[in-house]
Specification:
The complex is a heterotrimer of chains A (953), B (312) and C (247). With 953 residues, chain A is of the alpha/beta class. Chain A is 25% helix and 16% strand. Chain A contains 27 helices and 35 strands. The chains are: A alpha/beta (953), B mainly alpha (312), C alpha+beta (247). The structure holds ligand MGD (2 copies), iron/sulfur cluster (5 copies) and molybdenum atom.
């Protein structure tokens, strides 16, 4: 036999064409190169030039083909013909669909615009959807941030004008010590992975604080298996150690924070706990040498950080620093004292504190880069404290998340590590002011038929005066955002909308308009309750929520509960705009935004939702979408809007290639050729920041001025870090009976307790309300890196990786209940119980059970067969998580949310576990299959790509 | 290992076929073929039929049977290829021999053909055994006795068949039956020795070796790559419960060893030898299929160390 | 070709860093995505939307827990063909469809001559070969042979799909036969190892073990400034330190 190897073609043609656009298998928004061959997608890979992912891709992004060709895709607009939930639909034309929607929405707008509740989920077009809702005139608009991570956004924005959330990143290049709190995946999916790779390459130390040791937490050099909900104790103890061992960046505190600001101490007075201020309203500091008071803006003195002072009016005031020292040096924050509650040995806490201090102060790094601070002082270098932190939903999804998040920021600030080399870095347009100068709009007296709202819906209240409540103190908004229930709910409370609407509490609505949120399943708390609410009928047998419009691309669990379905395209078929007005893709050293554009054409009767929204705006004649003659302002649809819409003169959705010739960045005239420029450049624009402006941007004169010039900052003044948060104290004072807006009696203690201007730890609300003996375990979820919420299960490749989830329990828990791998157990909460299968592991806090999020599916959805593991063995914890806190004497049931921000407290869940007496079985509760007759049958076999090879041969 | 019926059928049927062919060839070689021309023809044809059915079944169960011709090419390294070559080569003398019988040709070539066919049969079965015996990934297969057990069982099942055929024409010879007993005894002792050996061997490879991280301590699987079984888990991860396997081994002992011995002795000593031999054929058939099923089902593949096995 | 080629100096392969791998599955799905339309296309999937979805994948990610107590670890563990130097998966093949390339050591299956007998998969101790039930041939990691030399791709993209996509940089590709290559150097520096070394197939791919924790030199606990309040409370000590520092 000859031993000749076959000659193979080493250089087959990869594709006929490469189109560059932006991934949307998740919200990370990486740049992708879509290879097309014979009109089909051959391959998707990362765009090497892209600021977000620099060429890499995640497990989801690389499975885009199967998302795009999913059998669960909707085919055309649908009109419900059976009862809600039956899934009986009739396909209709777009004309009919749009006319129906226009009629429903138009009637409400002409009568009572607040009767439209428009809530959007995982979309990234809030600058359009919010603007649309403003023009429509309903106060009831928000995106999903309220159930997602508002605690991180608000915690950061009220403290230092940025946030972990999407507004900043660790300085991956330079950091030497990195602490990761409660993150399994996060929005910066690829950047975090690349960052971890970089840390490892540089030999930095990574400490993970997480009840579970998987994923990122598995590769950490040190795993701190904390008990859920106790991070503020742990961080409080670290702060305690910093104070005790005097390892604090005093210079930094004096320069950039309100540590020296004087707080009035006058118990009972209306301004007790507020800052002492001068005539111009500027907070006062005291010069220890002269004993005189100065505005904090006066940088000619070194203000005192300690010592009670007598104000000119004779009252006492003390600097914030002193109050902090007292708070955190209390024995309750000593490592020994928090050890039991957190489950972390005291020596470990002390050691971590010492390591942090060592790296911050003994391994400081300097960059020889002169810069000028906000007060005109020149510095010849940039000094970095190479300690960085990142946190997400492990912190935010608890009802104490806002204060915990603030606590972490305080630690960063004490170490001097915000926006310095090696520390945390803002991503422009952050930092903003603390809190940002943006107030919520939608007070009920301002809502008038056919009139737009006076400003954007969501904002940052500085005190009770900014709440959206009526004279009786009742909420103006359907989700009760910005009411006494959740005064600083900067992102709304999407998780309460359906249930409130069904109870007509605070009022009933006419149309519920939902976009890209699977509210009838994994994005709701108390799924059975939510389904009842969606189908609830009044005395006349009419649905209590009369009309539901839903926009999805796929046959999700929510589709069958809507009356009118507007089918969206996939991300490869439409324009999208990832705008600086919204959640841009900036990195720390660049301002960036991007677009999506159709790289393939839809093969069915679907339309991009933004396109549809602009069409509807024209039909409804919403002011800023309509010309004076009544004709639509953007006849070219969404691309027309992206290019020609100006929010302010010269500022539009995209910042790149503005001006007639496309030579302007940030502010400039409309450029008709703008979209082409983006497409040519790989669908994004990046503007590198001058190295002089790369750090200390909260107080970097050059950056602040440049930011104003480019339209990304509102104020040229420095952002002063608010260690002590005065807005919180204002709410507290109201609870103490001051001012004309006071909380109702039931809310007074709640406000008094939680609105502490200095961060503190309190037990998560559910934990404090249910019995520890009855529900001894915490139950939490984690995002699988390869699945995006519910979307992944329709993906033939991704679902092979995880088609069913298990409940992971600590080996000791397994032993206690006599369960081994794959045994069925009952998991019970104060709301209900579910049946699921367990897997035993060691790397989990022993008081904690967990599972992968959103793997459980309802039969009939997502193009899956009825016997799919997702719906027979897969399960959701959401059936156990109540949207309301357990009942207490007194009757009123608050939302299961952070009392400050309204952030949904998904991870507060407490459960008990018992072995189930079954051999094999199915999960419970087991829901009826959803009807899906309008969907095509799913294939039983796939051989994607077979044709590409034949073409080669 | 997943016990695929096509492979079980192939190895047992063609094993018996080659066994029968072997005995017939020997009988021919030594001029001991019972009956006349028709017996010789039908007996050899039956052997070839069994062989062919087995080969066809295994061929048809290939992913690409239309390309099977390629399987003869790698005889220098591949036992599967060698088996194919040996099988095809064996057809020549065996076929000619059958034709000689059919046409009543008596030629000086016949004994040569007989010798060649016998050698071919042994070689083919040896190759079959070595396909498994050479796989170091499966300790239950990679045992030196494996090809000899294949040979012994091919020989004994073939002999039982031969005995049965001969008894049909009342020509069962004592010599043949004693040879049968001998081969059953040989197969039995080899198989028992084999069982003892594989049972005593806990497997020399551990999960920690597979993962290459013994310094990290004991390893426990957390999540498999896919939540539903993949090819490797289906093909290599088949496992049979210990007590179930023990029961099946008893069936093998009873049907493939004890029963045939008793039945052959009965056939030797008692009347109705055709009936006893028929029962012996049935019992041995059940026994050999069970033996072969177990040979797969009890085989532990090293790859399973990645999928949860602790040793292999 | 059934027999192994004479040992060659070029040994292309992957180095996988278990210290960095976070188990994100990117290498698994990008491998599937590239290869389902690549050299041995397709990689079929069965029952893709049903009860028992499965398909041919060339790269799979396991996770394991190791050890006890504070030293315990979770390790994510990608596993694909290791392109062994002396593998039986090649020699058992009856058709010669399975072969190891003389020029670079890549172990390949010829999709045009494989008969789907599965014997090679039985001979692989690593479970690295996957039969495509639909296509009737054996599939395995090709080391992206249709990428790494592909002149239609920009030079920097001539790496395997899994290496190109891995977001943490846990995967590297190169010539392990060249002691000066980056991959060989990192193997030498980090004590790269073979899976199931004892088996003797001499894998080319190497794995790098998790590193020992990087512990920064611990700060000696700062001595409280003993100026104003040598025996004071922590607060008093702190304040006197602050005063001293700021004065
Ligand atoms: N137990 C538990 N529950 C949770 C969480 C948790 O951690 N634990 N996390 C919560 C959080 S933070 C979030 S953000 C929510 C997320 O929950 P959801 O916002 O509900 O996320 P998805 O399940 O992805 O649902 C989004 C919907 O968008 C649809 N969709 C996908 N692509 C497109 C498209 O291109 N166009 C349109 N129009 N629709 C599309 C999908 O089909 C799906 O129906 O879940 C929450 N629920
Ligand atoms: N692949 C993928 N990526 C996603 C998503 C997805 O569905 N899939 N969803 C996107 C969305 S909407 C969001 S909001 C982000 C969320 O991104 P992450 O913040 O990473 O969200 P989770 O996966 O819920 O991770 C929460 C982590 O917190 C831990 N944890 C729980 N309680 C505590 C606690 O009390 N303390 C500490 N320290 N840790 C705790 C959990 O173990 C878990 O590891 O991810 C986004 N990115
Ligand atoms: S992280 Fe993955 S899914 Fe998300 S945008 Fe990037 S590539 Fe796409
Ligand atoms: S892509 Fe990289 S980090 Fe992700 S699983 Fe593969 S090797 Fe690990
Ligand atoms: S890993 Fe398996 S398939 Fe790959 S060369 Fe080695 S033995 Fe062959
Ligand atoms: S399956 Fe194909 S490659 Fe494998 S041994 Fe058989 S013929 Fe060779
Ligand atoms: S080298 Fe290519 S074929 Fe091999 S695992 Fe990586 S992507 Fe898959
Ligand atoms: Mo979220």
């Amino acid at each position: 036999m000859s031993s000749k190897e076959p000659q193979i073609d080493h250089s087959p043609e990869v594709s006929d064409e490469i189109k560059k656009t932006t991934c949307y298998m998740c919200a990370c928004r990486c740049g992708i190169d879509v290879h097309l061959k014979d009109g089909k997608v051959r391959y998707i890979e990362g765009n090497r030039d892209h600021p977000v992912n620099k060429g890499v891709l995640c497990g989801k992004g690389a499975s885009g083909i199967m998302q795009h060709y999913s059998p669960a895709r909707l085919q055309s607009p649908l009109k419900r013909v059976g009862p809600r939930g039956s899934g009986q639909f009739e396909a209709i034309s777009w004309d009919e669909a749009l006319e129906t929607a226009t009629e429903w929405l138009g009637t409400v707008r002409k009568t009572d615009p607040k009767k439209l509740a428009f809530f959007t989920g995982r979309d990234q077009s809030q600058s359009l959807t919010g603007f649309w809702a403003m023009q429509y005139g309903t106060p009831n608009f928000a995106a999903h941030g309220g159930f997602c991570s508002v605690n991180m956004a608000a915690g950061g924005l009220y403290t230092f004008g940025g946030a972990f959330w999407e507004f900043g990143d660790p300085d991956w290049e330079r950091t030497k010590y990195f602490m990761l709190f409660g993150v399994a995946e996060d929005h910066a999916s690829n950047p975090i992975k690349m960052g971890i790779g970089k840390l490892k390459e540089n030999g930095a130390k990574m400490v993970s604080i997480n009840p579970v040791r998987t994923g990122y937490n598995a590769v950490a050099d040190e795993w701190v298996g904390i008990r859920p909900g106790t991070d503020a104790l742990f961080v409080g103890a670290l702060i305690h150690e910093m104070f005790r061992t005097q390892q604090i960046d005093l210079d930094y505190l004096i320069r950039y924070t309100n540590a020296p600001w004087l707080v009035i101490e006058d118990p009972g007075a209306a301004d007790d706990g507020l800052f002492a201020r001068d005539e111009d309203g500027e907070a006062l500091v005291c010069d220890p040498k002269s004993g005189e008071f100065f505005s904090h803006k006066d940088k000619s003195i070194t203000p005192a950080l300690t010592g009670a002072r007598t104000l000119p009016d004779g009252r006492t005031a003390r600097p914030v620093f002193e109050l902090m020292a007292e708070r955190y040096l209390e024995p309750e924050y000593a490592p020994d004292a928090v050890s039991e509650a957190t489950g972390i040995p005291a020596e470990q806490i002390t050691r971590i504190a010492a390591e942090l201090a060592h790296v911050a102060f003994k391994e400081e790094i300097t960059i020889d880069q002169p810069w000028t601070d906000a007060w005109g002082r020149k510095h010849d270098k940039m000094i970095g404290r190479p300690v960085s932190m990142h946190a997400m939903r492990g912190i935010s999804a608890h009802s104490n998340g806002f204060q915990t998040c603030r606590m972490i920021h305080i630690l960063q600030i004490l170490l001097g590590s915000i926006d310095c080399p090696g520390g945390f870095r803002y991503k422009p347009p952050y930092p903003k002011q603390t809190p940002p100068n943006l107030l919520p709009h939608g007070a009920i007296q301002d809502i008038k038929p056919e009139l737009p709202l006076g400003g954007p819906h969501l904002g940052f209240p500085h005190g009770p005066q900014h709440l959206l409540i009526d004279d009786e103190g009742n909420p103006n908004r359907i989700d009760k955002a910005f009411s006494w229930d959740a005064p600083i709910s900067a992102h709304g409370l999407m998780h309460m909308v359906i249930n409130n609407a069904a109870k007509k509490d605070p009022y009933g609505i006419e149309v519920l308009f939902l976009y890209m949120a699977n509210m009838a399943w994994n994005s709701s708390m108390n799924v059975p309750g939510t389904l009842d609410a969606l189908t609830a009928k009044d005395e006349n047998g009419d649905y209590v929520i009369p009309k539901i419009i839903y926009v999805d691309s796929y046959y999700s669990e929510t589709v069958p509960f809507a009356d009118l379905i507007l089918p969206d395209t996939t991300y490869l078929e439409r324009y999208d705009c990832i705008s600086l007005l919204d959640r841009p893709i900036s990195e720390a050293d660049m301002v960036a935004d991007s677009i999506r554009h159709p790289v393939v054409q839809p093969d069915r009767d679907v339309r991009g939702f933004q396109e549809v929204l602009i069409d509807l705006a024209g039909r409804l004649k919403l002011p800023k979408f309509t010309n004076e003659d009544g004709s639509p302002k953007y006849p070219g649809g969404y691309p027309d809007y992206i290019v020609n819409h100006e929010r302010k003169p010269g500022i539009g959705p995209l910042a790149g290639w503005r001006g007639k010739d496309g030579d302007k960045f940030g502010v400039g005239d409309v450029n008709p050729n703008q979209l082409n420029k983006y497409i040519e450049n790989g669908a994004f624009h990046e503007h590198k920041i001058d190295p002089e402006f790369a750090f200390f941007r909260h107080a970097n004169r050059g950056y602040l001025d440049w930011g104003i010039e480019k339209g990304i900052r509102m104020s040229a003044e420095a952002t002063v870090f608010q260690l002590y948060s005065e807005p919180l104290q204002r709410f507290r004072l109201a609870a103490r009976g001051h001012g004309d807006r006071q909380p109702p009696e039931r809310a007074k203690d709640r406000i008094e307790k939680h609105f502490d201007p200095l961060p503190f730890w309190y037990a998560p609300l559910e934990e404090s309300l249910v019995s520890e003996d009855e529900f001894p375990l915490h139950a939490i979820t984690q995002r699988p890196m390869h699945m995006y919420h519910s979307w992944g299960s329709q993906n033939a490749w991704l679902r092979q990786i995880t088609a069913q989830n298990r409940l992971y329990i600590h080996r000791s828990v397994g032993e206690k209940i006599g369960a081994v791998d794959d045994d069925w157990v009952w998991l019970k909460s104060h709301l209900g119980r579910i049946k699921c299968q367990v897997r035993l592991m060691d790397g989990v806090n022993p008081h904690t059970v967990w599972t992968w999020n959103a793997i459980g599916k309802r039969r009939g959805a997502w193009g899956l067969d009825d016997d799919a593991p997702e719906s027979n063995q897969g399960f959701l914890l959401n059936h156990l998580i109540s949207e309301l806190l357990p009942e207490r004497e007194g009757g009123y049931r608050y939302s299961n949310s952070d009392p400050i921000t309204g952030q949904a407290a998904w991870f507060d869940l407490r459960v008990s576990i018992a072995k189930a007496d079954v051999e094999a079985g199915v999960t419970e509760p087991f829901f009826e299959p959803l009807g899906n007759a309008t969907q095509p049958a799913s294939p039983t076999k796939l051989a994607y790509g077979a044709d590409f090879r034949k073409v080669d041969a | 290992m997943h016990p695929a019926y096509s492979v079980i059928f192939f190895t047992t049927a063609s094993g018996a076929g080659y066994g029968l062919l072997f005995w017939l060839s020997l009988a021919q070689l030594f001029g001991q073929m019972p009956g006349g021309r028709w017996f010789g023809f039908f007996a050899i044809a039956l052997a070839l039929l069994l062989i062919t059915a087995g080969l066809l079944s295994s061929t048809l169960h290939l992913g690409r049977p239309e390309r099977a011709i390629g399987a003869f090419s790698q005889w220098r390294s591949s036992w599967l290829s060698r088996e194919g070559v040996a099988a095809v080569v064996t057809y020549v003398p065996a076929g000619l021999l059958a034709l000689f019988y059919l046409f009543g040709i008596s030629s000086g070539l016949a004994p040569v053909l007989g010798a060649l066919a016998a050698i071919g049969a042994v070689a083919t079965v040896y190759c079959t055994g070595m396909i498994y015996g050479s796989l170091r990934t499966i300790r239950q297969w990679n045992h030196p006795l494996v090809p000899y057990i294949y040979l012994a069982f091919a020989g004994s099942t073939g002999a039982i068949l031969f005995g049965f055929l001969a008894s049909l024409i009342g020509a069962a010879s004592i010599g043949l039956l004693i040879a049968t007993l001998f081969l059953i005894g040989l197969g039995t002792s080899l198989k028992i020795a084999y069982w003892k050996a594989v049972d005593a061997d806990p497997g020399q490879y551990t999960r920690e070796m597979a993962l290459g991280l013994p310094q990290l301590g004991k390893a426990r699987p957390l999540d498999p790559p896919h939540s539903t079984p993949n090819f490797v888990m289906r093909e290599m991860g088949y496992s049979v419960a210990r007590n179930h396997a023990a029961k099946l081994r008893k069936i093998v002992m009873a049907c493939l060893m004890i029963a045939p011995v008793l039945l052959v002795i009965l056939a030797l000593l008692a009347p109705l030898d055709g009936l006893w031999m028929l029962l012996a054929v049935v019992a041995a058939g059940i026994g050999i299929v069970t033996e072969r099923w177990l040979f797969f089902a009890e085989a532990e593949h090293v790859s399973q160390l990645f999928y949860g096995a602790e040793r292999a | 070709m059934t027999s192994l080629p004479e040992p060659t100096s070029k040994k292309l392969g992957l180095v996988i860093d278990l210290d960095i791998c976070v188990g994100c599955q990117s290498c698994a799905t990008s491998c599937k995505e590239w290869n389902t339309g690549g050299y041995s296309a397709p990689l079929s999937d069965h029952d893709p939307y049903g009860a028992d979805p499965s398909g041919a994948w060339l790269n799979r990610i396991h996770s394991y827990e190791f050890g006890e107590g504070p030293e315990a670890k979770t390790v994510h563990f990608p596993r694909s063909c290791l392109h062994c130097e002396e593998p039986d998966c090649v020699t058992v093949c009856p058709t010669g469809a399975s072969y190891k390339r003389a020029e670079d050591g890549i172990v390949l299956v010829n999709p045009d001559t494989c008969i789907g007998c599965k014997l090679c998969s039985w001979a692989c101790p690593y479970g690295a070969r996957e039969y495509d039930y639909d296509d009737g041939v054996m599939k395995k990691c090709t080391l992206c042979v249709d990428r790494i030399y592909n002149e239609n791709l920009p030079e920097e993209d001539r790496v395997p799909a899994c290496v190109r996509s891995c977001p943490t940089g846990a995967r590297a590709f190169g010539d392990l036969g060249d002691p000066d290559s980056d991959v060989s150097r990192s193997v030498a520096e980090r004590e790269g190892f073979n899976l199931l070394e004892e088996f003797g197939y001499k894998p080319v791919n190497k794995y790098l073990p998790p590193r020992k924790a990087q512990v920064p030199t611990q700060a000696p606990e700062k001595q409280p400034e003993q100026v104003a309040a040598p025996n004071g409370t922590a607060i008093e000590k702190l304040f006197s330190w602050v005063d001293k520092t700021l004065s």
